[in-house]
Amino acid sequence: MSDRAAIRAEAAQLRALFESEGAQPVETPILQPAEVLLDLYGEDIRARAYVTSDALRGEQMLRPDFTVPVVQMHMEHGAEPACYTYSGEVFRRQEDDPARASEYMQVGFEVFERTAPEAADARVFGIIFNALKPLGLRAATGDIGILMAAVDALCTSEGRKRALRRHIWRPRRFRALMDRYAGRAPVPESRAALLAQSDPMAEAGPVIGMRGEDEIMSRINALREDAATAPISENEVALIDAILGVRETSDNALEHLRDIAVDLPAIQPAVERLARRLEALEARGIDVSNLDFEASYGRTNMEYYDGFVFGFYAENRPDLPPIATGGRYDALTRQLGRGREIPAVGGVVRPGLVVELGGLS
């Protein structure tokens, strides 16, 4: 059997497993409207997607993943609750790592469930955990929602909070912003010189590019407002750092985060969601005392995850990307739902990597 045939056979086996767990099989087009993905992720998506143009349909992208089109499909036509599975190729540019495949298969399992989100988290994780058990993988988990709650609680301007939320998935940029907002990093000389001018547009010359003078002045005024904002306190920075530093087994992580919540009560609801999720995982037979939790985990993945996140790794093959990943993406349903929303969680498995590790049967 060729590698491609073996991968498709493994994908069919995984999809059949997800169907046996109640998932409805769905298909999505390989070509996706670029406008939707650009609206969600901005121009950054171009660095990791293949973009083409169509005279009738406009700019299109080869499908970078399945979650966005599946959410769109559900929000337009789906009943509640719902569970879906799919399989097919996705396409990602790998210019930073040419050794990685730019086209590969994914098999997914997505749950839209309003009444018991933590149980849905445990359901998705547990099914994938058990499916991949023959491979002896390491499972890693995290929760983006705890860090989001901490950012929302900062005593600073809404503009700064928006910037920090936007860059949660870019750890270096997030750290640079925290240092600047805390007064640890100096204001760039060019920005300080610009803000010192009483009329920055007086000697600016003709306006060139897409932005008009009103937009430029609006940005300058936003920079002035930011410059006048008091620094984030060292205590708040320390609490953010404490959250990002949590990396231990899930049961110990829960206790550590509860301790942090004493000083930062705003994260308490997110921490209690973690507690309910661990209870639901235990009910599915998963030993949470042996399940890794890292509060910063998942921050370099696609930006729609806003709660529980997980991944499965082959520890004896550090050269391989995650064999499976997933998480909660409630905000994505809100963005694509045109006024509707529903809690949702899902995960994807890469059958090509499963085959490379010897297969499930």
UniProtKB/TrEMBL annotation:
- Entry-linked InterPro entries: aa-tRNA-synth_II (IPR006195), aa-tRNA-synth_II/BPL/LPL (IPR045864), HisRS-like_core (IPR041715), HisRS/HisZ (IPR004516)
One BP annotation, GO = histidyl-tRNA aminoacylation
Identify the keywords attached in UniProt to this record, alphabetized. Answer: Ligase
Kindly name one Pfam family recorded for this protein: tRNA-synt_His
Q: Which domain of life is it from?
A: Bacteria
- Cite a GO CC annotation: cytoplasm
Residues at which L-histidine binds: 65-67, 92, 106, 110, 299, 304-305
- GO: which molecular function terms? histidine-tRNA ligase activity
Coiled-coil spans in chain: none
Q: Which residues form the Aminoacyl-transfer RNA synthetases class-II family profile domain?
A: 14-346
Quaternary structure, per UniProt, is: Homodimer.
Protein known as: Histidine--tRNA ligase
